[in-house]
Amino acid sequence: MDIKEVEPTTQNINKNICEEDLSIVIDELVNFYFKMVNEGKEDSISKQYVLDYINNHKLNLREIHHWLLNNPNDSNSIYLLGYFSYHGIGTDISKHKALVLYQKAAGLENNVAQYNLAKMYLNGDGVEINHVKVFDLCKKLAEKEYLAGMNRLGYCYECGIGTDIDTQKAFELYQKGANLGNCKSQYNVALMYEFGKGIGKDLYLAKYWYKKSADQGDNYSKKRLILLIGMY
């Protein structure tokens, strides 16, 4: 992918970061990505931020790759190198390479790497499906109050992924994430209220949480909200 072909959309980035201080660039990039995923933003939006950041700062991808390769003990650097490999940013797409790098960064307790690694194990994306590893990684993230991990752990309990089905536990995790602002958790709470899963059916609260999620841009919530308003 030629990143110069992607039109920048992010407006709130500090454009005065010195290019040579790549450690700051890497940490800021990963931390902002972490924030977006924690809020429940879609992968395409998060990826767009990475491309916008690189474009807006006129960063040299070759320099970034060189710096990442020469900082093999920094978990953010390892993670970002994996992210670039997964998405083909400045390099060929290699999900195997991404997997290896995510595993290494996850072993260093990098939260974003643990989350993305769990997603690969869940979907069988470049690796065999492993529900036990999905559950273990998400449990670890939830214990660290990582909202995206908390939401996915709720999904594990709801669907019996790596554990027994427990819809009440799933609802509790979704509710906690929803209260803290994760739009995917808000959507899941709304679904459970709508269909009375893990909690008593309550269409008023279903609409409330769909709206909260929709206000953050979640398209699924927008569709469900329109449908519910039309039905009741």
UniProtKB/TrEMBL annotation:
<dbReference type="Pfam" id="PF08238">
    <property type="entry name" value="Sel1"/>
</dbReference>
<protein>
    <recommendedName>
        <fullName>HCP-like protein</fullName>
    </recommendedName>
</protein>
<dbReference type="InterPro" id="IPR011990">
    <property type="entry name" value="TPR-like_helical_dom_sf"/>
</dbReference>
<dbReference type="InterPro" id="IPR052945">
    <property type="entry name" value="Mitotic_Regulator"/>
</dbReference>
<dbReference type="InterPro" id="IPR006597">
    <property type="entry name" value="Sel1-like"/>
</dbReference>
